[in-house]
Every structure is written in structure tokens, then in C-alpha cells.
């Protein structure tokens, strides 16, 4: 009898080229952006090497691009050079590139699925840790460094160590106003920021099956924040419906054959997992981070924690450091924390569903006078869809800035950043020190929690709005 | 890639857990299109004030550690962003080895591609090395990759484990791409088979 295998085992084995000197796995899809690729292309040039499979490679500028009027190009010289370098490399190596003026341009992890470049059963890499997003389609997708980007460009393969398997089962029903972002934050709180190190996490259960592709992507996206390089969800009807008729999806008889193959991409009954976590979603509440690691998460009904009660000395020191950086006093109710900026966007929550959800909270209302709200669609196509639905008008009438697509304030490489001491409610993925600007203080939340915070000017329980 | 065989250097203690790659090299320095020159901005926001002045109590600004080449630190070092700028910045500063209880996965891979040895040790050993690095007049240790050994001040020896392939590449300064290109025939054979199985790719 064949040993039952997990979905990860199947994906790994179906891409194994060689097992001598480490496992060599084949890469089907390579997404490339401007920040982590210039040195890789330089390496190719220096070695006199070509790109092995150009058609499996897609380039887009996202990290550095301005989200304000782009008609004058990029003003920051270094950012401009980096984006220009990407464009030059696209031409020199004959690779598909979505430039800043292309409506398909956007955050690399938004455009892959949107174009049907991301497909079930594939291996997908990108020089960006949030590549885990694409695992929502039943692909093995993970972030890599620049040396590995060069390796994939040159060989279409990577030398990797197989991961361990972790199962996260989420049963029950997500309560009203509790979203996949809250679930993702809850899981990170349970596992810790290193709890997933060395694992690929497979998400299963009633809740996961009932989620849209957008919501599934949010969960897989945040998987890296628990230390796991990849999260995966077996493809199903929801996946197929999302992918049908996308520009790069298979068509005709090929589509039928693909579906037949994709339906086999499930974990076998009795497959072994090295670790398991079971969650009942019925009692979940909206979550918010208070510290400087994504694991520093609490229900919005909670209070700023007291380091005195933390037993582990390293962890206690980390909590003390976080509280000083965040300017918070233990025991303060989280809903008393005032905020200055709200950011809605990023590869975590920059899809159409996220803007619809936030707009449903903002509709007909005005944001607090002391708050700046940035709404940054994840791609040109998300922006257009939102505008076709009139969402931009809701955002604008509420007092928000409706911007051009890009990574924006998630990592603040462009002009969108927090000033020292400014505090944000952000739908992005990281609350690290300085992440959104030196001295900036980040609270991670869902899009509806972000919208609620924008209306009141403080962290707010969206259920009580 | 530079070879790594035996190495003796100054140890700098950084007893913080979950040091992320944003801390190691903040985003404003990711706009470069080169691998070099990042060392002066290693740990920028911990090391300098907003106005660019050195913060005197940050470890790498203290006279004893300015020339450190080994970092001993807390668990989950290198978490967060996949930016290889983090190991480039460490290397450019002069760091050749980082010792911690655990490392984040992508950072771990990235360091070995750049000739930086990462050593995982139990928390108690790390605590001792941090204590020594803080209290010794001259906090030096020696690392022998071939023998998997760290030798401390009073000839105390700590053994460490390392994956044999990574060790082989570091010892010989091997380029992964060259190694993989030697398997060109295997890759071609795989591609034919893979195309038959998933022709829509």
C-alpha cells in the first residue's frame, strides 16, 4: 500500500528533479520585482548566463512606485533607477513586464492570481517573503533571497530542504465582522512568530472551505509571520471559479484537463502531520496587535499586557522593548489607543473584497478629523473594479485619499510613511520597529477594523460601531 | 563566494529575540542595485539617531565591539522580509558568523549563499557566550567549521551541528548555480516529463 501523503508531499515529489547534494526542485512560476532582482540579473550578466525559461517569469514594479499622480514618473532618484533597471532587464532578457502605466501593474502577489499566472499544483517563488500568498491556490509558494532568484533565473530550479508538515484545522463559523485577517492574526498569536519555522502549514476545515479566494490569500499571506515559509489550501470549486477565464489560465480542453489534475491535489486520508493545531472559529473576535512582532496580538476587547507577568526572561525583555517603542502603558484598554493614520492596502488586504468591506463601514460617514486614511488598491485592475463599483467615491466622501496601486505604506519604501511617533491602524502584515517609517507605530488589523478606527480616531471594536 | 574554514574573531552580544531583517537593514537602503556598501547602515535605526549620530550604548558602537566579526543573539534571528540585503549588510560590516538558538528559514538560506556561517546552539550555550562577550576584556572565539567546534577563551570547546552539503559549499566556496548547471541533463529530462503531466504550464 502506498503511504498516505500530504498535499505538500505531493507538490514536492512532483517537482523533484534530483536528490543528490540536497533536493533540487523545479520552479514553474517566478515573479520578479525591482527591489530583490537587480543583483540577480547582474549575476547572470557577469556569469554570461541566460534566463532558462523566460515564459515562466513575470516582472512588475511594486515596492518603490509612487501611489500619487504618476504622470511625472518617480521623483526619488534611487527608486527611479531601481524601477528603470527592472524594465531594462525585462528588455535585455526578453521577459514579460508590467510597467507603471500598465493597468495590470500592482503588487506582485495580487497580480499573479489576478492574471491566472498563479495556478494549482505549481511551485511559485519570488524574492519576497509574502510569496506564501499563492499557496491559497494549492501551489507550493515561498519567498527566496536574491541569490536564489538568480539560481531560478539561470536554472529554473532551486536547492531546498523539504519542510515538515503542519495541519491547521479551523472548524465552526466565523462570527459576523470577524474576518480571515483576524483568524490569521489569531493563529500567529497561538503559534508564535517562529512557531512555523521549518514547516509548511496546510489549512483545512469548514471555515477555510467557506472562504473566498481573497480571504484564503490573506491567511496564506500571513503564514510567513508565523515563521512558516508556505501555507497551502487544497484547490476546490471556489479556486476553479476564481481562475476560470483569467488571462493566463489554461483554456478549452486544456482547462478541463487541468481541472481533472487539480482535483487530485488533496492530502490523502491518514497522511501524517508533524504538528497539528485545531481551532473553533465560533468564539473568535476581531484581533489587533499591540507590539512590534505579529505574535503580539490580542482581541480588541483586551488591554495592553504587563511584562511583569511574562515568565520567560527573553520574552519579557522583548515585551518591555515593544512597549517603550509603541509608547504604551500596561493595562490600557486597546480601544483607548488613539491613532493618526489608517492604511488600507498591501498584499495582505489590497484586493477588491477588502475595499468592499472597508467601504461598507465608511459609507455615508466621515473619518475623524485627526486621522489620515490612505486607500491603496493592490493593482490597477483592483482599482478599476473598485471605481466601477463606486467604492472610490465612498472612500473619498469619507475623507480618504484614493491612491494608485503599489506596496505603499506596508513597508514605506516610497513616500508613504509614518513620521516618528505617529500611530497607524494598518491592514498590512508587519508591525516591526520602523517598518512603516522610523519611529512609526503600527497596529495590524482587518480592513473593517481599519475603517472603524478611521471613523473614531482610535482602535475600535467594529462590532460595536 | 568566499571560503569559510577556520576563523577567529571578536564576539558582539545582541541579546534580543526575533531580530527581523527590517532591523538588520531598514528599507530605505534597499534601493541599491549593488550588493556592497550596506555595512555602514547595518542595524541603522538601533545604531544611529535620526540625525545620523552614533548611539553610544548600541553594541557595535562600543569600542570593544567595533571590529566584531561574530554576533551572538536571541532566537528567531533574521525573521520577516526575505531581503538578502540583510546578509549583505552583515558581511559588508565584517560579520562572518552569527550564533543563535534558532534562525528564520529564508535568512538562514541567504546567509549560506554569502559565505556567512550560522550556528544554532542550545539557549544555555548562547547565554554563556553572551555572558562571556559582555564580560571578557577581549571577547574572542575561534570557529573550526571542519571540526564543528567553537573554542572559547579558556579553551572550552562547544560542538555544533551543520548540514553536510552546506558545510561542503562553505568550506570550498562553491557557487550553487555552477553545481546545478552540471545537472542540466536531469533538468531537461524532468521538463519533458513535467510537460506531459501538466501541458498547460
Describe the structure.
The complex is a heterodimer of chains A (465) and B (201). With 465 residues, chain A is α/β, with parallel strands linked by helices. Chain A has helices at residues 7-13, 38-47, 77-92, 108-115, 146-155, 180-191, 206-210, 213-222, 237-243, 252-262, 313-326, 346-349, 352-362, 380-388, 391-398, 447-456, and strands at residues 16-18, 23-26, 29-32, 57-60, 96-98, 123-126, 140-143, 157-160, 164-171, 199-204, 230-232, 275-280, 287-289, 297-299, 341-344, 372-375, 401-402, 423-426, 441-444. In chain A, 33% of the residues lie in helices and 17% in strands. A 5-stranded parallel beta sheet of chain A has the order 5-4-3-6-7, with helices on both faces. A 5-stranded parallel beta sheet of chain A has the order 17-16-15-18-19. The radius of gyration of chain A is 21 Å and the shape is globular. Chain B is α/β, with parallel strands linked by helices. Chain B has one domain: Aconitase, domain 4 (Alpha-Beta Barrel), CATH 3.20.19.10. Helices cover 33% and strands 16% of the residues of chain B. Chain B has helices at 21-24, 44-47, 85-93, 105-112, 123-135, 164-172, 176-181, 184-197, and strands spanning 6-14, 70-73, 97-100, 117-120, 140-144, 149-151, 157-159. A 7-stranded mixed beta sheet of chain B has the order 4-3-2-1-5-6-7. Classes of the chains: A alpha/beta (465), B alpha/beta (201). At the A-B interface, helix 2, helix 3, helix 5, helix 10 and helix 11 of A face helix 4, helix 7 and helix 8 of B.
Amino acid at each position: 500500500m502506498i503511504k498516505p501523503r500530504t498535499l505538500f508531499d505531493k507538490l514536492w515529489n512532483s517537482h523533484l528533479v534530483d536528490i543528490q547534494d540536497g533536493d533540487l526542485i523545479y520552479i514553474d512560476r517566478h515573479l520578479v520585482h525591482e527591489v530583490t532582482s537587480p543583483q540577480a540579473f547582474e549575476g547572470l550578466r557577469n556569469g554570461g548566463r541566460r534566463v532558462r525559461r523566460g515564459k515562466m517569469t513575470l516582472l512588475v514594479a511594486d515596492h518603490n512606485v509612487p501611489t500619487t499622480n504618476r504622470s511625472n514618473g518617480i521623483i526619488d532618484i534611487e527608486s527611479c533607477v531601481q524601477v528603470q533597471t527592472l524594465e531594462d532587464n525585462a528588455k535585455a532578457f526578453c521577459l514579460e513586464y508590467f510597467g507603471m502605466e500598465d493597468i495590470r501593474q500592482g503588487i506582485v502577489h495580487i497580480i499573479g492570481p489576478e492574471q491566472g499566472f498563479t495556478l494549482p499544483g505549481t511551485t511559485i517563488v519570488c524574492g519576497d517573503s509574502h510569496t506564501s500568498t499563492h499557496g491559497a491556490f494549492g501551489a507550493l509558494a515561498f519567498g527566496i533571497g536574491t541569490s536564489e532568484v538568480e539560481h531560478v533565473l539561470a536554472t529554473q530550479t532551486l536547492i531546498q530542504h523539504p519542510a515538515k508538515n503542519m495541519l491547521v484545522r479551523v472548524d465552526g463559523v466565523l462570527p459576523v465582522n470577524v474576518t480571515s485577517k483576524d483568524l490569521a492574526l489569531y493563529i500567529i498569536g497561538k503559534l508564535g512568530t517562529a512557531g512555523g519555522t521549518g514547516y509548511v502549514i496546510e489549512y483545512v476545515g469548514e471555515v477555510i472551505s467557506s472562504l473566498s479566494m481573497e480571504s484564503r490569500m490573506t491567511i496564506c499571506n500571513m503564514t510567513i509571520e508565523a515563521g512558516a515559509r508556505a501555507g497551502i489550501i487544497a484547490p476546490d470549486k471556489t479556486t476553479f471559479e476564481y481562475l476560470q477565464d483569467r488571462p493566463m489560465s489554461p483554456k478549452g480542453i486544456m482547462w478541463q484537463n487541468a481541472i481533472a489534475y487539480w482535483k487530485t491535489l488533496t492530502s490523502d486520508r491518514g497522511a501524517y502531520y508533524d504538528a497539528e493545531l485545531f481551532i473553533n472559529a465560533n468564539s473568535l473576535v476581531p484581533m489587533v496587535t499591540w507590539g512590534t512582532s505579529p505574535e503580539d496580538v490580542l482581541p480588541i476587547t483586551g488591554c495592553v499586557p504587563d511584562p511583569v507577568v511574562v515568565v520567560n526572561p527573553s520574552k519579557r525583555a522583548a515585551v518591555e522593548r515593544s512597549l517603550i517603542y509603541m509608547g504604551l502603558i500596561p493595562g490600557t484598554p486597546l480601544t483607548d489607543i488613539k491613532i493618526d493614520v489608517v492604511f488600507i492596502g498591501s498584499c495582505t488586504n489590497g484586493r477588491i473584497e477588502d475595499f468592499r468591506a472597508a467601504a461598507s463601514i465608511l459609507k455615508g460617514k466621515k473619518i475623524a478629523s485627526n486621522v489620515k486614511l490612505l486607500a491603496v488598491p493592490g493593482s490597477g485592475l483592483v482599482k478599476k473594479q473598485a471605481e466601477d463599483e463606486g467604492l472610490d467615491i465612498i472612500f473619498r466622501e469619507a475623507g480618504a485619499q484614493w491612491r494608485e496601486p503599489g506596496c505603499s505604506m506596508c513597508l514605506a519604501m516610497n513616500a508613504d510613511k509614518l513620521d516618528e511617533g505617529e500611530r497607524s491602524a494598518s491592514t498590512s502584515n508587519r508591525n516591526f520597529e520602523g517598518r512603516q517609517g522610523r519611529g512609526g507605530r503600527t497596529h495590524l488589523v482587518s480592513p473593517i477594523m481599519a475603517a472603524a478606527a478611521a471613523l473614531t480616531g482610535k482602535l475600535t471594536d467594529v462590532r460595536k460601531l | 563566494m568566499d571560503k569559510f574554514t577556520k576563523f577567529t574573531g571578536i564576539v558582539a552580544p545582541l541579546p534580543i529575540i526575533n531580530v527581523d531583517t527590517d532591523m538588520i537593514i531598514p528599507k530605505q537602503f534597499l534601493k541599491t542595485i549593488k550588493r556592497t556598501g550596506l555595512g555602514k547602515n547595518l542595524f541603522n535605526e538601533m545604531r544611529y539617531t535620526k540625525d545620523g549620530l552614533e548611539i553610544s550604548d548600541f553594541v557595535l558602537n562600543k569600542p570593544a565591539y567595533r571590529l566584531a566579526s561574530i554576533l551572538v543573539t536571541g532566537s528567531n534571528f533574521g525573521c520577516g522580509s526575505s531581503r538578502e540585503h540583510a546578509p549583505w549588510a552583515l558581511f559588508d560590516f565584517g560579520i562572518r558568523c552569527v550564533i543563535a538558538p534558532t534562525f528564520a528559514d529564508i535568512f538562514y538560506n541567504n546567509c549560506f549563499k554569502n559565505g556567512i556561517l550560522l550556528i544554532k546552539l542550545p539557549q544555555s550555550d548562547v547565554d554563556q557566550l553572551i555572558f562571556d562577550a559582555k564580560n571578557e576584556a577581549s571577547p574572542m572565539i575561534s570557529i573550526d567549521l571542519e571540526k564543528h567546534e567553537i573554542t572559547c577563551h579558556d579553551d572550552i570547546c562547544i560542538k555544533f551541528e551543520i548540514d553536510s552539503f552546506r558545510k561542503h559549499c562553505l568550506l570550498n566556496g562553491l557557487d550553487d548555480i555552477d553545481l546545478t548547471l552540471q545537472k542540466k541533463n536531469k533538468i531537461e529530462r524532468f521538463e519533458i516529463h513535467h510537460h506531459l503531466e501538466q501541458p498547460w504550464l
